[in-house]
Amino acid sequence: MKKRSFKEKIIAKGAERMVMTLEEPPNIVDLTKPIQDCKVAFVTTAGVHLKSDPPFNINGDHTYRMIPGTATPDLLTITHDHYDHKAADQDLNVVFPLDLLRHYAQEGRIGSVAPRNFGLMGYIPRTDLLINEVAPAIARQLVEDQVDVCLMSPG
Fold first, then answer.
1. Over 80: is that where the pLDDT of 19 sits?
2. 28 to each of 75, 94, 109, how far by Cα in Å?
């Protein structure tokens, strides 16, 4: 039996739209400096956003919300009905640990927290839009901010 390529596996799952840019698996980049010198960003698909931002469409939303690295939990909320976020409602650090990252920066465990972090909703039926529009837009902003490490959590 012939081993299928990454693209063939995606097509076999019925996600033809998604393969527009996925010819090969993504590259993994080695960390070239100590974590203590790194600027760290956080991206979550847990539906986290500023309370002042429009909520996510819980019926499927491929858009993202920018969250400043200085945002405190009282300024944030979760719009996502596709997982039980009771624990995250009590302590947002469960899915979006900006407080923890700031603490690590103060202790010198990481260099700094990125000025822009990102929240998305995990229920994204149009994965082609996520792959071809949203992910590149977020990546460009992370590069502009000279982010060294991007941590991610699902929602």
1. no
2. 33, 26, 23
Instruction: Give the chain's radius of gyration (CA, Å).
Output: 17
Average pLDDT of the segment spanning 105-113: 97
pTM comes to: 0.81
Measure the CA angle with vertex 28, ends 120 and 23; round to 5°.
Answer: 80
pLDDT at 99: 94
Distance CA 32, CA 34 (A): 7
